[in-house]
Amino acid sequence: LATGYEKFVLDCEVLGMLHKLLQGLDLSDDALAMDSIRDVPPGGHHLGTPHTMAHFRTAFYRAELFDYNSAEQWQEEGSLDAVQRANAKYKKLLREYEAPDLDEATDEELQAYIAKRKKEIKPEF
Q1: What confidence score (pLDDT) does residue 57 get?
Q2: Which of 1, 15, 36, 44 has the fewest Cβ atoms surrounding its Cβ within 10 A?
Q3: Residue 66: which H helix or E strand, with range?
């Protein structure tokens, strides 16, 4: 079994997609927006309607690590693949991480548990 920070970040991206997928389809009157569709004349567009403006940010899952640009723009920006983007993201996450406050008693218990387990577990290599 092997893993790495990039794999973890990519897995989180996939979990985000699955989370959106498992929310299911919203078939409510508001989501279907039939009134909004009827309000737009033939040849018109829905991009500026109040319904679109209210829902466009949450209607789809947009993965951070995927590139949605044209091939030309992707090349101009360094041709980064998903693994390279994941590498940059995990480094940013680690750089910006702030450890949560931990009360002293809890920290002591955790340190004692870690020391105990280190003595009990023998590496197999």
Answers
A1: 87
A2: 1
A3: none
pLDDT reported for residue 1: 53
Q: What is the pLDDT of residue 17?
A: 93
Q: What average pLDDT values come out for the chain (125 residues) when binned by 10 residues?
A: 86 94 91 92 92 89 90 95 96 96 95 94 80
Nearest one of 3, 11, 20, 22 to 65, comparing CA atoms: 11
Structure tokens at 91: 């480094």
The C-alpha atoms of residue 62 and residue 53 are separated, in whole angstroms, by: 17
Q: DSSP secondary-structure letter at 56?
A: T
Beta carbons of 7 and 82 less than 8 angstroms apart: no
C-alpha dihedral over 109, 112, 113, 114, to 10 degrees?
120
Indicate the Cα dihedral angle 80, 85, 87, 93, nearest 10°: 150
Integer Cα distance of 63 and 33 in angstroms: 25
pLDDT for residue 58: 86
Tokens in use for 102?
């931990």
Q: How far apart are CA 39 and CA 14, in angstroms?
A: 37
